[in-house]
Amino acid sequence: MTWTLDGRTLTSRFLLGSAGYPSPAVLQAAVQASGAQVVTVGLRRTHAAAGDNGFVAALRETLAATGGHLLPNTAGCRTAMEAIILAHMARELFDTRWIKLEVVGDDYTLQPDPWELVAAAEQLVKDGFEVFPYCTDDLVTCRRLLDAGCQVLMPWGAPIGSGQGLLNPFALRTLRERLPGVPLIVDAGIGAPSHAAQAMELGLDGVLLNSAVAQAGDPVRMAAAFGQAIAAGRLGFEAGVMARQDMAVASTPVDGRPFLIP
Amino acid sequence: MTWTLDGRTLTSRFLLGSAGYPSPAVLQAAVQASGAQVVTVGLRRTHAAAGDNGFVAALRETLAATGGHLLPNTAGCRTAMEAIILAHMARELFDTRWIKLEVVGDDYTLQPDPWELVAAAEQLVKDGFEVFPYCTDDLVTCRRLLDAGCQVLMPWGAPIGSGQGLLNPFALRTLRERLPGVPLIVDAGIGAPSHAAQAMELGLDGVLLNSAVAQAGDPVRMAAAFGQAIAAGRLGFEAGVMARQDMAVASTPVDGRPFLIP
Amino acid sequence: MTWTLDGRTLTSRFLLGSAGYPSPAVLQAAVQASGAQVVTVGLRRTHAAAGDNGFVAALRETLAATGGHLLPNTAGCRTAMEAIILAHMARELFDTRWIKLEVVGDDYTLQPDPWELVAAAEQLVKDGFEVFPYCTDDLVTCRRLLDAGCQVLMPWGAPIGSGQGLLNPFALRTLRERLPGVPLIVDAGIGAPSHAAQAMELGLDGVLLNSAVAQAGDPVRMAAAFGQAIAAGRLGFEAGVMARQDMAVASTPVDGRPFLIP
Amino acid sequence: MTWTLDGRTLTSRFLLGSAGYPSPAVLQAAVQASGAQVVTVGLRRTHAAAGDNGFVAALRETLAATGGHLLPNTAGCRTAMEAIILAHMARELFDTRWIKLEVVGDDYTLQPDPWELVAAAEQLVKDGFEVFPYCTDDLVTCRRLLDAGCQVLMPWGAPIGSGQGLLNPFALRTLRERLPGVPLIVDAGIGAPSHAAQAMELGLDGVLLNSAVAQAGDPVRMAAAFGQAIAAGRLGFEAGVMARQDMAVASTPVDGRPFLIP
Fold first, then answer.
1. Considering A181, B223, C178, D55, which has the largest number of Cβ atoms within 10 A of its Cβ?
2. Interface pTM (ipTM) of the complex?
3. Is residue A259 assigned to a domain?
4. What is the domain-level CATH number for residue D46?
5. Partners of chain B (3+ Cβ pairs below 8 A)
6. Are C169 and C195 in contact (CB under 8 A)?
7. pLDDT band, residue D262 (cuts 50/70/90)
8. Domain count, chain D
9. Around Cβ B244, how many Cβ atoms within 10 Å?
10. D216 touches chain C (CB under 8 A)
11. pLDDT tens digit string along D210-239?
């Protein structure tokens, strides 16, 4: 039941974002409840100039206790160049070669810009990074990212923060079928635990989300809910989900008479 | 996190059917893995005249060990009269006043017959049964069943054994809003763990299924998957699922510059 | 391309409601633009005590010109008895044995009450009416209505006025397959022309709607749009919609070289 | 109700493909029944080396009679270079600067390759072509195509020949909102008239399809069905589709008593 991400063995398939929590304490508790072993962190944050109010320290402390990994991201970048610079800063600050590469191409959908993304990935791989690209669900773009040296892909389910779930399951299923062996992590758009379970049932390898936990009525319990749903979806995938039938099939076939219990 | 069904306190919201498993041993292992504390059993079974090959004994043994409850059903009945007679037989055989009332109105959909169902429920309540009616998702029919004295409702998600998931979430949501306080258990049609989680996120109280576990590649692991997914969906409901947004909302708002970690 | 409803030959499969239009003139123009040959009219209307502001006269005038038929309805009734009385009044007032039978069972969904509906239908058929029952999409209830002597069924697509489209296409498809030869008219819930076309592609016989036209920005053009969409959906059904494929199939197979045009 | 495509005024918003018809006569009849004023034609066709069995001649004859326009396509190309060469051949053969640019990036989905597509579009615009790019529904890619000089975009609804309808209506709606004024024509994946109407209701400008007509039981009637559905969807869009309501809203408000007809 374990899996491997860049050579590190993980038991959880849940990757959690660290933005937008009410307090550092809630963030700590949510990470613990989630079971997530990878937590993303942005460099550019609201009020960043004024400090981060203790969030990063809280995060480091939690991960030190759980043995989890930090995954810095380049949220807010709009060009390959911006993202490359930020990734290098992140490597210094967080002491990790992992980078979640975000290069946004539209203010409305906050969607990845495939061109800038591929360009940034090519450079960062050359610079020795392990690049986790936040990408669209487009197969050709995904192949370009693999050609650029990415070993993991993070296709979106829906726009960041929308909570709409998987807008195009067909595209994700296509990625799974056409890219066997490549770790695929749905990133963005997940709103409810059932969405996360659905992604796992499609055979994807993990789920990354942030808003659905941070904006929940009770972020800590929601973190636990997602942790369970993701494990459940994976287990269901491994156990083999039944085929859909177009009509009813009696679960209790009847062709005898009531029997007597011995 | 516990809930109450006819005065019995339960920790699991998963109700499992016992038909169609490869062997009694697999059934036992699946019940244990599921965490289900209520297991349904049919009186009319294939080859029933020739005995049940040890399934019921296996079931009794498992439930004795886990403290679970048997819920006999009237699968295969087509009239109120048939169902009433079978219910009385079940009470004798299984020594319980609980009865899952199934009165099928169509061979193709195996859907409940609202008229026969209400008629049977009225009689069985008078006869002292605790009736769990397998019903459609129709609000007026559900109210009739409550008027007849049912204290739990089991609306379908989709035709039995179809694995299609929730065909009409709107109808289930309507039942939840219009019948607050009534235990609602989705029964039939669930195919994947994500379907079960979705039902729980709608605020329903439990999920009953059979084929999705019995027909899985690995029924025991699938039983565990559903157990987790149902718990996850409930937890998500209680934690408050975020509202869907029509567009992207940055989870990592950006209006400062990269900050330095102290 | 014509079809028959209670012995009358019709060319249009669109049945239009007459409530909620901005003015009698708009209603007249909408009926004409729609091509509808059957128009429903309610007896109980807002401000009815104060007269109907000329709507019914406008309607009669339009139908006289187009040779269309009035279909009085019992909108607003909650019991069989109320509906029966209103139906008899309607027969006197409108001089027709046709009645669209509505018996509402819930204030929130305005859904039909299957029990009251069947009871009313039984009586009205005995009284010589041609009953068009507004019913749910439940197969067993539909069979009861046929047993009661109804020759047409009008299952809902979604709650009245919701514009949600077909909430449960599976149920409608089931009705079509299980009730061959029975005229099936989707009534209520249609919001957009594409919803109406979808209903026709399922093999249903007609579409009745009101709010989607009356509440449109431009009711007259919307009436025309629905008229075309319903005709298009029917034509598509008759022409045989292609089967869905799980993957791409080249429409332009390529195995030669570019050819020269002679 | 007319619209303009590259300066030519058109009354129909239906663009039809010409591949896969049973015979030239059926193709001719289908084009006529469709009302389409733009018909695509591939250069690389099955058995092309052996001639095209009269299809292109039939097409030219039909378009000459209806005043329609030929839109040659580069179906089957896998690189920008291939497509550029084929486009130049097409200009010679068909005597038109219009080219539907297809550069396929995957054998399974037959999806566009965004990179090769943009590269080919840039060159062809420089070479004086009016490029109609068959593209994905990705906003950033669409903007690149506009930057390259395309004045029309043809995003897919689903993989070619799949008949699945609009797999991601959200993405198409986003294109519409973010690219106001740009003619958007859904190309590929449409299976039923209702799918085409839905695309038009989203505010897109046209629909291009082939398999749904060519593979229908009766291609000629299906061509007519799509022609009507597309016109209906557009008319519905212009008339203003009602907003969806979460619950029922009486179309026939009732607060008086039955009124008497004067």
1. B223
2. 0.90
3. no
4. 3.20.20.70
5. A, C
6. no
7. very low
8. 1
9. 13
10. yes
11. 999 999 999 999 999 999 999 999 999 999
